[in-house]
Every structure is written in structure tokens, then in C-alpha cells.
Amino acid sequence: MLVSYNWLKEYVDLTGVTPEDLENKITNAGIEVEHLSFVGEGITKVVVGYVESKKPHPEADKLNLCQVSLGDEVVQIVCGAPNVDAGQYVPVAKVGARLPGGVKIKRAKLRGEVSNGMICSLSELGVDPKFVPKEFADGIYVFKDEVVVGEDALPYLNLNDYILELDILPNSAHCLNMIGVAHEVAAILDREVKYPNVDLQEEAASVLSKLDVKITSGAEKVVPYYGARIITDIKIAPSPAWMQNRLIAAGIRPINNIVDISNYVMIEYGQPLHTFDYDTFNSDQVDVRLANKEEKITTLDGVERTLLPSDIVITNTQKAVAIAGVMGGSDTEVTSNTKTILLESALFDARSIRRTATRLNLRTDASSRYEKGLDYNRVTAASNRAASLIAEIAGGNVLSGFAECGQRVIEPEIINMPWKVINDKLGTTLTSEEIRDILVRLGFDAKIENEWMHVLVPTRRPDVSIPEDLVEEVGRIYGYDHLPATLPEGTTSKAELTPYQKLRRKLRRYFEGKGLYETVTYSLTTNEKAKQLTIDESTLNDAVKLKMPMSEEHETLRMSLVPGLIDVAEYHINRQMPNLAIYEIGKVFKAQGSQDQLPNEAEHISGLITGHVHDKSWNRAPETVDFFYVKGVLEGLFDLMGVSNSISYRPAKRPDLHPGRTATIHLNDECVGYIGQLHPNVQNDHDLNETYVFEISLAHLRDQDQSEITYHSLPRFPSITRDIALVVDQSVFADHIKQSIQEAGGKLLSDVTIFDVYEGEHIEEGKKSIAFSITYLDPERTLTDEEVSRAHDRVLASVKEKFDAVLRS
Amino acid sequence: MKEKLLALKEEAFALIENASDKKGLQDVKVKYLGKKGPITEVLRGMGKLSKDERPVIGALANEIRQAIELVIEQKQTKLQEELIQAQLESETIDVTLPGKSIKTGNAHPLTSIIEEIEDLFIGLGFSIAEGPEVEQDYYNFEALNLPKDHPARDMQDSFYITNEILLRTHTSPVQVRTMKKHQGKGPVKIICPGKVYRRDTDDATHSHQFMQIEGLYVDKKVRLSDLKGILTVFAKKMFGEDRDIRLRPSFFPFTEPSVEMDISCFKCGGHGCSVCKHTGWIEILGSGMVHPNVLEMAGFDSTVYSGFAFGMGPERIAMLKYGIDDIRHFYTDDVRFLEQFKRA
């Protein structure tokens, strides 16, 4: 809503209140002033001039030489406007003047003739061309009212005005009109609202001789009231400058006096009005009904619209002549030939209008007001105001009364509440009188009766209906600045992170300490990527897709985090950053159960490492990531969670991963993730070097977190370590041998580590040698050689039996 | 005899002085103090001396033996020191060379902001509540006083999966779910962080996915002034002790009254600059008193309980705090961007 500061002064005394004051006060009381601007910004030295004479430029067909009086001097101005003429009063930018856009007016010579200034068009004075009245669209502006030559032209053009642009939220629709804004400002300033003085002289003849109104075919529910007046003998002409200027300030292009008046009153009262040419309306019967299926109407903008039975139409009983509350039809448009008009002032259901306007993508000044709700009790006042202006400006005769149908007067709502609730909710200590005063300033009728308060809410405030609404009204006018800042008096409570939230933070810090950067990527991805590199391969048909995606890039919810990390890696390699270590914690999604069941959401942790894990330095060769580096990072993670002993790795072949360098990760027997190198084809597709990825389902691990600490006292007796190298078939898995050693070693075995793996020279073809360091320990006493040997022999026997392992000599 | 002893002493001292290593010293020691050494020999030949001479020479011989031992010891220490000195010199390095780099990563800036806010509110007795990112229309809208035909829940603004299921547009459904769990009994004190989604075309200031962090406090006798108090604590901790806050009336369907909170500009201190668009104030979050309809729908008696809620965007806070100009940076994950928040 664009509010003209000058126009607002009509309704409320703004003495001593600058536009900047007003901006702050309105914003602080609840309606944000998004923008305050001075209309004549950047304009200087533009005065009223009188064109004394005009003669053609000797050297140029389209230019005229005008002698223009500026009061204290007469100057020659070369003017190219087609509508310039002797005897006109015009705005003149004098030599040295400035115009919007940084234009500076200098003395000039045009084809040999001196020009001392410029006669201005409205757009040269900063008026948006789309608001310039047609009569001045292609030329200079010409004053019609009485003006004084030589005076500053800005006030005559209302360019000395300020515009406040209000951001109207759903609860402030009452400020979509000047009177509503006046009420708001009056409440803030504690001043009175002055309503327009309406002095309507009606003819003796009744409107009913020419018109009847009915609401039919189910439209009764969505059309509470429809009223129409008939005004005869009007003369269509441009409206007076003051009205044109105010409409321009409000962002509406002046058209002619009738259209302008209905727009003017809509801005003033908030009640949309519509005018039909009574002669082309071609009926003495208005029938307001629901549209027929596929009914067609060509609206004022020349577009043919197809309607649905949920749309309300105004008809002359034969055909639709307007889409109610949205836009009129072109057949009954007011034209320069119009003599008699039908002036509509009606109420339509907000939701219905919103549905229609949204579907037709046709938001008009009228529909946006209907959508947000009107003051039902202004429907008559607005019609009266418009009729009196038409009589005054367009010379019309107003037939007496209304042709109407429906209920015109709505009783205001009453809110009964203990007045103390206001203080309880705000934390204030206002007295009942202070509360009542604020409500009265807002135009609410408030009565205090002991503990109770009875508030009559004016119909212009449909947003106020419950006690909390009054809490807000009192609070905002009292001023939130004046509220104390208190701390809650309720029960004090202790709070901490849940174990899972703690674990998540621990994991983050762990990966960051290991050199990985945390990333956040999009949950929505392409349908293809959503299904790539999932932990659970059996659920690919359960991808969750959007009903109406905005693009293929973001149409399906991811089932794995790794594809997003691959995109991040590709981004880096394309920018010459081949070394990258990243991780992400985020949710993956899969459908479950029936359509109306929410998808399953599981939090995963995923990582990607490519390139150097240590850069080349003066004292170190670079180290490139390999499978075991990444595995080491994960082993540390599982150790941190206390689940190392339950975790195993199994070789796996999966799409998009290297078939010989991939393992699924199992917690006991359940697959909870994978680790592997990206398949070389995938690497090539993304221009990546050797790249390793992993993904683990945190949801599966969260319940297994055994990071609780069980303390073991330090060993008091020495341990004994024996190293052995075993030669086995290449196909034997090291971890299987290790497990077998652990089982065979019994109680005394405290640790097994693999310190060498070798194949090649001195080892039989198809075999490999794995060296283990086995540590034996008895926490209770010193071990004897015989005891260790017994255990060690069991170990050797076991691996011989299970893997045909031979001690390497 | 006496002369001979003194001469031996001089001789030994000279040899000790000239010894260049441990071995040389050992040789001297053996030569002069050993069983076959000249001093032992002198002592052995004492029998030939007169009664008067014997103690004098004996004492002298012992004295010289001790003197030689002492000098050898001193020389030994000196040699040892020289040895260490030489070693230290040979081991000297250029300490200005760079260290072996140990790479460290760091948290995403949004995580840092969220954790900071979480910790602050945990200190104030709030727990962290989480919920699904794909939500029922009911929890996302209806239970928050946004009935079916409310403009704010236009199909065009949200990512729907089915007519009843959508990607949550805010973390407020977590508030509803948590309140329902409490079965009408307060207090409820929670912070709800998480990802949310809206149908926006990604550009410098819009993202179809972003973070939100919301707070909810429902109890008997919660007042708007309490919200002001809590938010003042938050603003000072988050943006600096000398921040002022200002509440401005606003509108949200799920709160009544609704307020927006501004903080005095942390860049210019409120005098006006480009960060605060020359107003001195920066809009930080939306909040208000929980709408009675929302309380009732979540099973709380709105005549007994009241509450406040607030919500903010970690992206916006990070952008303001660090002067980040494009919201897409948070989701591009360029390490040159990420690594700047190591100390966050």
C-alpha cells in the first residue's frame, strides 16, 4: 500500500509529525514501512511558466520556439512536444535546474536557436510513464487549475509529497485504504480521524425504476450483499489535477473521471467499486450468480477468460458482464460515450475471490482487497462518497436509493475478557484505565466492569476476534520498547544433549581432527543420483519423489550422501584442487508402507577422500590416500564408539565401486555401511583421481554406542611377544587368520597385530606371507616360557588346520 | 724420592692435559695409578726409607695419587662436556623451517552457528528436539493455525510428496510433536534446529534448502516480557554484550501477538552503515506468544498455559556475522570457504 503523506493529512492532523517520524512510528506500532521516498527527489528549479507565443523553428519541422514567461523574465525555449501551445501554463525547468536521473538543464543551442530551459513532461519530472494520464502521455504537462507564474511547480504537481510504502500482512488488511491508515496513525498519535464530508443530493426518481438486483443459483453463500446505484447525465472527461495527482501517488493511472472516482474511493475507503455503462449493460436486472462451466467472458484487459462454477459473475440475466470482485467485462466498460452508469458496491467472499484471482492469475486492486477482507459496513458509505464525487465532478444526477440484495449492516463483534489478562500476557502493570484508553484510541469501544472488560470491535478490524488479539493491540500501541525484559518465573529445568546428540558432536570432532571438512549438501537431487551408492541395495524402488519438482536437479530425496560428496569433489578438481577430505552427516529417505505414511528417515555419516592426505613438504614425500588410510579413519571411529569388536569388513561387489577394493561394513551380522574406491568409470565421469568413499548408517549404530568407560588396572607383570610369519594361499583373508589366532590363543593372548604382508621372491607362487606379532599376558602373575609356548603351539596348530598355514622359515 | 714423586706428578698432569679422549685418559690412569705404576712402586719401596722420611713420603705419595685422580676426573667431565657439545652442534637444525603439517578439518559454519545457539539455550534449560524433515501437512500447517486455504501454504510455496505429505517448510512441526508428547503438561522448553525446504529458485539470497532453528517455551504464566528477557540474553551472548534489542509488532499465523526482533547493528553499533542499511538495526528473528489455537490443538489448555516461540535462520546469522554475500556458498562446500570457519 502506497500512502501519500499529503493525502493522509486530509483525514488526520499531522502537524508536527515529519514523514520520517511517521515512518518510525508506524513501523514500531506494527506495520512495516518498507520504504519512504520524496516524490520530487532530485528536482530543483522547476517553476510554473506561461507560454506567451509559439512559432515554428526555422530549421526543424518538429521543434517550436516558445516565448515563456517565468514571472520575472521571459525566455525563449525550444520545445519539441506536439501538444505545446501559446496560452498554456506549463512546468519549466530553468537553466541550472536538476531533474530526476541526474539530468542538469543548461543553456543550449538547438539548430542555431537558443533554448533557456525546458518545458517538462510528467515522466521527465520522475513520474513512472505507466501512471501518466493518457492526455499527457506523449507531450508536456499542462496545468488546468489556477496557478501562479514563476512559483515552484512541485506543489501544483504534488511532487512535494512523500510516499510511505506499507508492507501489509494478513492481519493489517484494514490499512489497505487511507481511512484505515488514518485510524492507525490517529491511534499512534492519539489524534482524531476526520472522515470525508459526504453531501449527497439524490434525485427524486428512484433507482428501482431502472434496476433490480437478485443473487441466485447458490451465490447467496458467497455474496453477502450487492448494491447498485444509477447515475444519469454524466460527462466523461479527465478528472481534476488533484485527483489525478493522488491516484498517481497511490500507483494508479488516471483514466477518466468515472473510473478515477471509483478507484479514488476504493483507495480512500478500501471498498472496491465497479462502474458499468448502463446503456451497454442492456438490462434492468442484475443477476449475481455462480458461473456456468466453461462460461466465457472478455475482461477489460481484452483477454477472454474461461470460468468455473466456483467463480462469481455479475450478469445482466443474459450473459456475464463482470467477474465479481476481480475485473469487469469489456462489453460494459465506461467509455467516452457513456451517459448513464451503474455503480456497483458489493461484498464478496474473500476465499472465493482469492481462488478465482489465483486461478486466472489476475490480481487486481479490487481482488487483493476482497481477498484480505473488507469492512462490511463501508459498502454504503463508499457508494455514497463515489456518487457525490461523480455528481460534483462529472455532473451526474444520482437516482435515489439502492437496487440491492443481501444484508448491508453487520453487527460488530464483542470480546469479553478479564482486563488483567492483558498484563498477564504482556508482563506489564497497566491499570484498567490505561488499557481502556489505548483501545479507545484505536477506535474500539471498551467498557471496564470490575475485573471484566467488554470490547466492541469495529467491523473495519476483522483481524481482531480473540482476547490475544487485544493483547497485541494494547501491546503494540503501548510500545514493546516499554516492556520490561524479565526472565520466566516458572520451574527451572536442567537440560543436556541426548546421548545421540552427544555422539553426533563427538563424531564431527573426530572427523575434523582427522582432517575432514564438514559439508552440507542438498537432500533433493536427480532421480538417478538419489539411487546411487546406497548402503541397502534392496530399496531402490522406494525413492521418494516430489509431486511437482522445480527442476530435474532437485526432484528426488537422496538415499545416500555419497553422490552429493562426489559432486563436491568434482567441483574442487575442476578448480585445480585435487586433494580433498570431506564428510557429511545427514538424512537419507525411503518410502515405507502406504502412500499416506511418512517416509523412513535415517541419519547417515559419509565421507570422501581423494588425492594427498599429506602434502609434499621439505622433509616428506606426499602421501596419497588408499583404501587402508580410509579404513584406518573408520577403525578409529568405531573404537571411539566402543564397537570395534563387533565390526567386520566383507569384500563386496557393488555398482559404482571398485570390485576389488570395496568392503561392506557389518555390525555383528547386520550390514551398516560400506567403504571402497569409486569405480574407475565413475572417477572418469567426474574427472576424479583415485577416490575413496564410505557411508555408515548412524541410525544403526546409535543404539550400539558402547563408549562407556570400563577401567582396567594397569598390568603389573610383563607380557611376552612372539612374532610369526605364516605362509598361506593368496585367497585367505588376513582377518580370518587373525580371528583364528585370537580364539586359539585363549585367555593369555592379549593382542595380535599384523606387521608385514609379503608375496613375491622366496614365496611360492599363489601364496603370501603374513607376519603377526602376538602378545601374551597374565594380569595376575609372571608368565613362564612353558605356558606361553603351550598357547603359542595351540595357535600354530589352529592356523595350520584351518588355513594350511606354514611357518615361514 | 720426594723430587721423583713431584716429577711424576708433573709428568702425569701434562699427559692428562694432553689426553684428547676417554681412552687416552684411561691410559694415563693405568700408567700412573695402576698396580704397576710408578706411584705404587714408590709406596712399595718405602721400606728402604728412614723412619722419619716414611710418613712424609707416604703422605706425599697419597696426596699426589689423589691429585692425579682428581685431575683425571675433571678432565673426564670436561671431555664428556666437549663430546655433548659437539653432538649438540652437529644436531642443530633450522627451527624456522615449517613443521610437519597435520591436516585438520572443521565444522561447517552452519553447524558451528547451530551448536553455539544450542549450547546457549541448553544453559538456559532448553533441550534439543528433532523431528522428521518430511512431514504431514497437519503438523507443518494445520496444527500451526494455517488451515487448508491459508495463503501461506500455497502448493506453489512447498515441496509436496502427496497431498498430505511435504518437505517441512519450517521446524515448527517439531514444536507441535513435542507439545503433543507432553500431553498437556508443561513446562516445554525446546530448541529445534534442522533443515527446511521451500519452493524457491536458488540465487544469492534464496535457497530451496536452508537451516532453521526455533525455540519454544510453554508453561504457566509465560509472558511476552519473558520472551524479551530471553532474547536479550541470546542477542548479547551471540552478538556481543553491548547489543540492544528491539521488538517490532509483526504477523505470523501461529503466534499472537507476533513480534520481530532487531538487534542494534554489530558493525556500526547503531549509527548506521551498509550492513544495517543505515537504520542502525538488523532484523534477526521472528517470534511471539504461541497462538491459543496452536496450544489447544497440541493438547494444552490455553487458559492455563501460555508460551513463546521464536525462529531464526542460521544462514542469515552467518551471512550477517561474517559478511557472506551469497547463500549458495553454504551448499557449494568449497573448502576455501569452509576452512575460514576453523575458529568459529
UniProtKB/TrEMBL annotation, chain A:
It is found in: Cytoplasm. Pfam families: B3_4 (PF03483), B5 (PF03484), FDX-ACB (PF03147), tRNA_bind (PF01588), tRNA_synthFbeta (PF17759). PROSITE patterns: B5, FDX_ACB, TRBD. The keyword Cytoplasm applies. Residues 715-808 form the FDX-ACB domain. It is an enzyme of class 6 (ligase). Residues 40-154 form the TRNA-binding domain. SMART domains: B3_4, B5, FDX-ACB. Keywords: Aminoacyl-tRNA synthetase, ATP-binding, Cytoplasm, Ligase, Magnesium, Metal-binding, Nucleotide-binding, Protein biosynthesis, RNA-binding, tRNA-binding. Binds 2 magnesium ions per tetramer. Belongs to the phenylalanyl-tRNA synthetase beta subunit family. Type 1 subfamily. Tetramer of two alpha and two beta subunits. This is Phenylalanine--tRNA ligase beta subunit. It comes from Terrilactibacillus tamarindi. The gene is pheT.
From TrEMBL, chain B:
PROSITE patterns: AA_TRNA_LIGASE_II. GO terms for biological process: phenylalanyl-tRNA aminoacylation. Residues 111-339 form the Aminoacyl-transfer RNA synthetases class-II family profile domain. Mg(2+) binds at residue 256. InterPro entries: aa-tRNA-synth_II, aa-tRNA-synth_II/BPL/LPL, Phe-tRNA-synth_IIc_asu, Phe-tRNA_ligase_II_N, Phe_tRNA_ligase_alpha1_bac, Phenylalanyl-tRNA_Synthase, tRNA-bd_arm. Keywords: Aminoacyl-tRNA synthetase, ATP-binding, Cytoplasm, Ligase, Magnesium, Metal-binding, Nucleotide-binding, Protein biosynthesis. It comes from the Bacteria. Its main location: cytoplasm. Binds 2 magnesium ions per tetramer. This is Phenylalanine--tRNA ligase alpha subunit. It is an enzyme of class 6 (ligase). The keyword Nucleotide-binding applies. Its cofactor is Mg(2+). Belongs to the class-II aminoacyl-tRNA synthetase family. Phe-tRNA synthetase alpha subunit type 1 subfamily. The keyword Metal-binding applies.
